[in-house]
Amino acid sequence: MVKINNKFLQTPTELIFYLYNVSVGVFIIFNFSEVGHGLFLIIIHLLIMAIYLYIRSLKLPDENAKKYNNYIKIFFIISSLTFLHYETGLLNLIVFSNYFDESIQALDLKIFGFPIHKIAQSYLRHNFFVQTFHFFYMTYYLMLFLPVFLIYRKQSRTEIEFNGRAEKSLFLLLFTMFACYWIFIIFPVVGPTGTHYQIFKDYGGFVSLLNCLYEYGDSAGGAMPSSHVAVSLVVTLFSFQHLKKLAPYILFSFIMLTFSTVYCSFHYGVDALAGILAGFIFYYTGKYIHAFLKRSIGSE
Question: What is the CA radius of gyration of the chain?
Fold first, then answer.
């Protein structure tokens, strides 16, 4: 018979995971009349936390079972970001009633001198480049999961508990993502997605696959800063600490992905620059916050 461990909180990662879900739930409650399907969204947040609490509180019989349970916890937390990202598009016209694309476009032109997100109209138009850059844009989804899994895999050879460098890496990823999500809610920017569908409307392959993913899972208003760039940079930075052999390949993917966000016309050039800046800020800020929280909850 499976036993439930009553201990509620063990790591800083769990704390910010709960805090984000609770904070968004409170935001929905305070703006309930303006949020479509507000009750449904609150129920989803409660379910996410309840399911996670059940998974992580199981008392398991041996080390292998504990190890697989930790993989499931990592997978569940990162997978929940799909809903949490989509949800920002349902909440991002509450604080301000309009998107800020005109201001971002003006800044983009001031910095680059031309709409750099239309670069594929004039350069690198061959199908090889189109497919290559759309492929690297999609490597973002792999970067969300693989590095944290590999860091935990190395760590679990000597330490089964989900703590240490694996837990800290996941914390930094989540801290960056949640910070971006709140920015999306407060400062919504759609990005040049309409340009993407104009430029690449006749292409198949990775373009069609990515269009399908965006059709069913994209969230309007989540362009500034580019969370793809910010999170991928954070993953790259902690990979150089914990996955030294794989880190150069992750760095190459990050560089290609950053260019791809603009080339594929999902982001303005300034979105990518803001994503790089946000990645550095949230990485180093997140390290200090993680250390503080770890001391505060006594998980050292």
Answer: 20
Q: Please, what sign has the CA dihedral across residues 193, 194, 195, 198?
A: positive
> CB of 277 within 8 A of CB of 225?
yes
Q: Which helix (H) or strand (E) holds 145?
A: helix 127-155
Tokens of 162: 């989900």
Token pair recorded at residue 180: 């971006």
Within the chain, which residues score under 70 in pLDDT? Answer: 1-8, 216-219, 298-300
Question: On the CB side of 46, how many CA atoms lie within 13 Å of its CA?
Answer: 8
Report the domain count for the chain: 1
User: Is-contact 182 51, C-beta < 8 A?
Assistant: no
Query: Which amino acid is residue 122, in one-letter code?
Result: S
Contact between residue 4 and residue 59 where contact means Cβ atoms under 8 Å apart:
yes
DSSP 8-class letter at 58: E
The reported pLDDT for the residue numbered 7 is: 63
pLDDT of 217 reads 61
Phi, psi at 3, each rounded to 5° = -105, 150
Question: In angstroms, rounded to a whole number, what is the distance separating the alpha carbons of residues 285 and 287?
Answer: 5
CA distance 67 to 63: 6
Report pLDDT digits (tens) over 31-58: 999 998 899 999 999 999 999 999 988 8
Could you tell me where the beta strands, DSSP code E, fall in the chain?
3-4, 58-59
Query: In angstroms, rounded to a whole number, what is the distance separating the alpha carbons of residues 211 and 218?
Result: 10
Residue 177: domain span: 3-296
Give the model's pLDDT for residue 124: 80
**How far apart, in whole angstroms, are the C-alpha atoms of residue 175 and residue 179?**
6
DSSP state of 117: G
- Determine the pLDDT at residue 118: 87
Which residues, other chains included, contact 216 with Cβ-Cβ below 8 Å and sequence gap of 6+? none
pLDDT at 2: 44
